[in-house]
Amino acid sequence: MEKPDLKFWQISNLSFGFFGVQIAYSLQSANISRIFATLGADPHSLSYFWILPPLMGIIVQPIVGSLSDRTWTRFGRRIPYLFVGALAAIIVMCLLPNAGSFSLSVGSAMLFGLIALMFLDTSINMAMQPFKMLVGDMVNEKQKGFAYSVQSFLCNAGSLVGFLFPFIFTWIGISNVAAQGIVPNSVVYSFYVGAAILILCVIYTVAKVKEMPPREYALFHGIAEKPDKKEKSDFITLLKKAPRVFWTVGLVQFFCWAAFMYMWTYTNGAIAHNVWGVTDVKSPEYQTAGNWVGVLFAVQAVGSVLWAMAIPRFKSHKTAYIVSLLLGAAGFISTVFIHDKYLLFASYLLIGCAWAAMLALPFTILTNALSGKNMGAYLGLFNGTICLPQIVAALVGGSLLYLAGGVQVHMLLIAGALLLAGSLAVQLTVKK
């Protein structure tokens, strides 16, 4: 039996909470390097702080996926995990930016920040993964590409809001400077407001989305309502049985997510040095550059929203993927040669094209190759192709920065080269 077509608002409701989750994620992405640099971290050590987000993802998301495949409550299969993850994220979002405000030593403040970051990443991953699963569970193959494009749109809209918060709060008069080792109020208040929006969005999703009960789910996916207890479904067995696209698209993912890890880690220092001419994290110019990074990431989100509308017009996923990554590579490489903060808008619009493809195309390609059986587990395992490259990139980031002469903008050049490699991997491994 085929799943029925869903109305636009039904598809939108499946992903609406992602708007709030992405605000939390974008606040983390744009401000973690800034927060830890403010607390006193050495630039060559910044990449190590970024190991925690993907490490938590590679652990949490497969577990959430596998457990939710076997869960059914009156609230649904995926939604309970979504709600608990969001609730935990809200608490930690109120603690993390205050790491330097508790009269702790520099070392203790960074340890507190690391622990808070670990819990924030765990909770964000727990809240994020169910949205991808809901689309796989409830949308038919004909509408799935559109549904993930809607999710991409809401994701980028959330990013736009989150990235702009510190800039907006500074503009309305909230302080963007603070005592040494303390995060400015413009950032702290951004996390507070982001947490409030997150819970409102998740409550809306919980109220509006009704998941398929087990019998209906089994009927539409052509699987048994109760799993065969004799059949192995551990992670190793599932990986052995994974469809070919799991691995081929995973290779592309490796290059793409390593590239964006370097963008998140080094853009603050790169822009401060390349545009403002400063490297001192205590200077007001460095904090101003930090706000501008939020603006640039917001421009990237706008580029992603616009390009997400163009992707469905391509005749093949493969062509859309290649073109998107080539545009993103051009954006990264151009940042090395641009010293005007407004000209950087063009660079980050191009980078947004790659981001739009990374959010929509891999999951469209993969879920079309999966049955409903073990959908959550496979999507959780596929998250490893997002997390593992970030862990590798974080581990070698400090060494690469030394080889790059300590100039952080050179790390964005490396990011461009990684996207070029990703476009080549699409050409070699993705069939259509």
Please tell me about this protein's structure:
It is globular and about 60 Å long. The model has no long low-confidence stretch (mean pLDDT 86). By secondary structure, it is mainly alpha-helical. The protein has helices at 8-39, 46-49, 52-69, 79-95, 106-138, 141-171, 185-208, 214-221, 235-240, 244-276, 284-310, 317-335, 344-367, 375-382, 384-403, 409-429. The protein has a single domain, classed as Up-down Bundle (Growth Hormone, Chain: A).
SSE order and pairing:
Elements: H1 8-39, H2 46-49, H3 52-69, H4 79-95, H5 106-138, H6 141-171, H7 185-208, H8 214-221, H9 235-240, H10 244-276, H11 284-310, H12 317-335, H13 344-367, H14 375-382, H15 384-403, H16 409-429
Distance between the termini: 26 Å
Gyration radius, rounded: 21 Å
Strand content: under 5%
Name given to the CATH architecture? Up-down Bundle
List keywords for this structure.
Growth Hormone, Chain: A, globular, single chain, 432 residues
Give a quick summary of the entry.
The chain is an all-alpha fold. The protein has helices at 8-39, 46-49, 52-69, 79-95, 106-138, 141-171, 185-208, 214-221, 235-240, 244-276, 284-310, 317-335, 344-367, 375-382, 384-403, 409-429. The longest helix is centred in the N-terminal third of the chain and has 33 residues, at 106-138.
